[in-house]
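URGENT: need a sanity check before tomorrow's submission.

F., can you look over the Type-4 uracil-DNA glycosylase record below? I want to be sure the sequence and structure line up before it goes out.
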Amino acid sequence: MISANDLSPAELAALLHFHADAGVEWLLEEEAIDRFAEFEAMKAARRPAAAQAQQQHPAAGERPLPSQAPPRRNAATRPAPAERAASGPQPAIPDGEAVQQARFVAETARSLVELKTAIEAFSSCNLKHSARSTIFASGDAESGIMVIGSAPSAEDDREGMPFSGKSGQLFDKMLAAIGLKRSAILLTQVIPWRPPGNRAPSAAEMDICRPFIERQIALAEPKAILLLGNFSARFFFGENDTIHGLRGRWKEIAVADCVIPAIASLHPQDLLTAPVNKRLAWNDLLAFQAKLKSLSLLRN
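Structure tokens as predicted:
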């Protein structure tokens, strides 16, 4: 094991950023914890419950989960990490039931404010339990202009807003190049919670989050949509091509009773990784600008 004393400030900063991106929110506890004793105590607590369940269902041959209630503790006592991990996530909910709950929550929201509150209280998607922030639409909902990204990045999750960090700085420059700024449009993400390690959301997670983003669109009623990133384009266009095959062409998105023109382009993070593609993104931005002008959403 390498001691922190052997690392340079830059190496130590990089290591801390790595842990933060991986979802680690604490490194040291205020008091020393005997993990070996903790583990043995957990095993001992499971044995009586397991034996009782085995006696009740001798033919099943399954190992039941412990059903013992956690011991009471003083409210001022800080729980150990193992206790926090065990008590934090909500009980597992079948994907189909979670999708139904998401639809009900989305459909009953009559405004973006109500929808934001409902999503923040929603706990049936596992992505929420590993994310710090719930990323919701921000900006001007009356503008008629909507930009939809893919999923929150680590910077978005830390800042609590979409398109943060270096990609956000580039995004602001992209908007300014066609006469826009983020406060004058409605900006949101397909997925409101950052997937751990920036992995792609699973099919079940996409199904659970779909009612939320579709309700945002239905309530905002945009006249034109710009989709940024491969995931966002595939999500709405229903195609499996890469962003290079999906970008630059106007298509229609049907949400509720609305049919909205949408165009896809590269995500700012893609442009930071491969700056040579900025010329492609610029062409897409010009096409988006022309559409906004034709709809009288942007002054000449």
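My own read: The first helix runs from residue 9 to 21. The first strand starts at residue 138 and ends at 139. If you see anything odd, call me.
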